[in-house]
Design a protein that fits this description.
The protein is of the alpha/beta class. The protein is about 45% helix and about 15% strand.
Length: about 475
């Protein structure tokens, strides 16, 4: 018999991203009593579309690009998920991220099915005008294939895209949509001036903050980790300083956690006394790199930054950053998954054996889709949140303050009146809704863990929670007896 090669021996255990997500699903499904046929329906990707399209470069040459859109589950409509521009985009990644979106939406009670899309490109190699033509042509393909619409499938920004691309998508859709009234709800993450919602840009990072704050408030769990209760004083290392990582670091710092490390693709910064998040951000904006920030130790290899001493490690970049190779060297006691799929299955098993508290991505980075849901509702209702009630609330609060002044003789300062008498505007309502969502979801997952799978972890509990909710939706649809 021929000697088996290393590749041949490893082949059976190498799994794609989508297979890894399904492996996590299967691990959780064994704690449920749902019929096998229903579990298979929940797990499978309902539809996936791969298409190619030409674009004309600025120099007149024609280039063919590859795009994808996957709709993982139609148990709720519309489906929802971001659009990413990356050289790593492929069908497997898109289906895996669409599946994670399905479970994420279920966990935080957002009534969407999961979807995801992307184009295989490096946006740095294209001009602004070329990116606009690419985005508009991609949107045209989605329209032609019925993969976009306020009641069908609603994209949003993701890795490599922003509110700019969403504005182009909206404009393209508006030009072709039969129903102009609700067409503005065809995408979320739009600029405020084009019916976006206040608080959407920072939503994922703020959700990471709310989730971590709630987890750290539970004395029993912190005692098991050898940590004090609460965020103040806890040291944090953040990997990725894009939109999610920056806002997570910003809000954690404002919550009195100490951000000691920031990791980017070209290196990492470390200061045990704490980094000034805003100054690091300003330095990166001015010079193009965090490497020029003066008040920190520079670490050339960004992967070494993951192994810095800290209480909380926040991977907020891309998938598969925590691996079987580096997991044994992690010093954090809490892993807060702000990115999608940052931990491999092998690393996950190792970290569970070390009793690390893992706040899973299916829960912790749900802030973006939660506020996207609010934006979608705002677009369909055609009214800004807070517009109807804010002035009434302010007048009521000021009347109460005047009554207190009359009864007690105390005179409130103008600052006190402004603070106490403030009526809720759109930002306040969005933050309040996001905070309530993250708190409620965390306790639901934690209770599922306590009752259903105490020997497992919160990731398994989050999948169980999602499976139960999706199964209930299918039962209500009458698809399964």
């Amino acid at each position: 018999m021929a000697t088996e090669t290393l590749i041949e021996r490893l082949a059976p255990i190498q799994k794609s991203f989508f297979q890894k997500v399904n492996q996590q699903f299967d691990s959780a499904a064994r704690f449920t009593t749902h019929p096998r046929g229903m579990l298979e329906q929940i797990k499978i990707c309902n539809s996936s579309c791969h298409f190619t399209f030409p674009i004309k470069r600025d120099d007149g040459t024609i280039e063919t690009l590859h795009g994808w859109r996957a709709e993982h589950s139609h148990h709720k409509l519309p489906t929802k998920g971001g659009i990413r521009y990356s050289t790593l985009v492929n069908e497997d990644e898109i289906m895996a991220l669409a599946a994670l979106m399905t479970y994420k939406c279920a966990i935080v009670d957002v009534p969407f099915g999961g979807a995801k899309g992307g184009i295989q490109l490096d946006r740095c190699e294209y001009s602004e005008s070329e990116l606009e033509r690419i985005t508009r042509r991609y949107t045209y393909e989605l329209i032609q294939k019925n993969y976009i619409g306020p009641g069908v499938d609603v994209p949003a920004p993701d890795f490599g895209t922003s509110e700019t691309e969403m504005a182009w998508m909206l404009d393209t859709y508006l030009g072709m949509a039969a129903d102009k009234l609700d067409a503005i709800a065809c995408v979320t993450g739009k600029p405020i001036e084009q019916n976006g919602i206040r608080g959407r840009k920072e939503a994922t990072g703020r959700g990471v903050f709310f989730g971590l704050r709630e987890a750290c408030a539970i004395a029993e769990d912190m005692k098991r980790l050898g940590l004090s209760t609460g965020l103040p004083g806890k040291t944090v290392v953040v990997q990725g300083f894009g939109n999610v990582g920056y806002h997570a670091a910003k809000f954690l710092s404002e919550g009195e956690a100490i951000v000691t490390g920031i990791i980017e693709i070209d290196g990492a910064l470390y200061n045990p006394e704490g980094l000034d998040v805003e100054k690091v951000f300003a330095c990166r904006e001015e010079s193009g790199s965090i490497r020029n920030y003066p008040d920190a130790t520079l670490i050339d290899n960004p992967q070494d930054g993951l192994e810095l001493a800290c209480d909380i490690l926040v991977p907020a970049a891309v998938e598969n950053q925590i691996t079987a190779e580096n997991a044994p060297r992690l010093k954090a006691r809490i892993l807060a998954e702000a990115a999608n799929g940052p931990t491999t299955a092998a690393a996950d098993e190792h970290l569970k054996q070390r009793n690390m508290l893992i706040l899973p991505d299916t829960y912790l980075n749900a802030g973006g889709v939660t506020v996207s849901y609010f934006e979608w509702l705002r677009n369909l209702s055609h009214v800004r949140f807070g517009r109807l009630g804010r002035r009434f609330e302010e007048n009521q609060y000021k009347s109460m303050l005047q009554a207190v002044e009359k009864a007690t003789g105390y005179q409130f300062s103008s600052t006190e009146i402004a603070l106490i008498g403030h009526g809720a505007d759109e930002n306040d309502l969005v933050d309040s809704g996001l905070e309530d969502t993250m708190i409620t979801a965390y306790h639901e997952i934690r209770e599922t863990h306590r009752r259903r799978c105490p020997a497992a972890d919160l990731r398994t509990a989050s999948f169980i929670t999602a499976i139960d909710k999706i199964a209930e939706a299918y039962l209500q649809l009458g698809i399964f007896p």
